[in-house]
Design goal:
CATH class of the largest domain: Mainly Alpha
Largest sheet: none
Shape: globular
Helix content: 55-70%
Radius of gyration: 16 Å
Distance between the termini: 17 Å
Structural class: mainly alpha
Strand content: under 5%
Number of strands: 0
Order of helices and strands: HHHHHHHH
CATH superfamily of the largest domain: Cyclin-like
CATH architecture of the largest domain: Orthogonal Bundle
CATH topology of the largest domain: Cyclin A, domain 1
Number of helices: 8
């Protein structure tokens, strides 16, 4: 699911923070809910988490019709997406603000003033490498 979320959010040119928020929402939901899920529920939860994260982070968030038609390929109804979003929100007690590893990494780079120390080209490359490593880190919770 995490790999697919990276693919979807990158193809729609979403901010990196949207990915990290979506995974965070999904993980917290799984941790805090008492429900037992089927493997088929994972897709619905992931789609809803991305929808929520984009609403929180993006200037132009996903519209429900885009999520239904293009991302969920019309396999999840708009009502189910909305219902899943409500369930996630209730489970998370409407607490959507959080710090992610992406924010920690970016803040660290700027606090170390690496944007002034390194040439712009090298700093951008360092940011790309850090983002890549942060995304790969999402696959292995022992690393987190």
């Amino acid at each position: 699911m995490v790999d697919w979320m990276i693919e979807v959010l990158c193809s729609y040119k979403c901010k990196n923070q949207s990915f990290f928020l979506a995974v965070h929402y999904m993980d917290r939901y799984f941790k805090e809910t008492k429900k037992v899920f089927e493997p088929t529920d994972l897709h619905q939860i992931g789609v809803s988490a991305m929808f929520m994260a984009c609403k929180y982070e993006e200037i132009y968030p996903f519209k429900l019709s885009l999520v239904h038609d293009k991302i969920a390929h019309k396999k999840i109804s708009k009502d189910r997406i909305r219902a899943q979003e409500r369930d996630i929100m209730r489970t998370l007690k409407h607490d959507l603000s959080t710090s992610t590893s992406y924010e920690f990494m970016m803040n660290s780079l700027y606090l170390l003033k690496l944007n002034y120390i390194l040439d712009e080209k090298y700093f951008k490359y360092l940011v790309k490498v850090c983002i890549y490593l942060s995304k790969m880190n999402m696959y292995d919770y022992k690393l987190l």
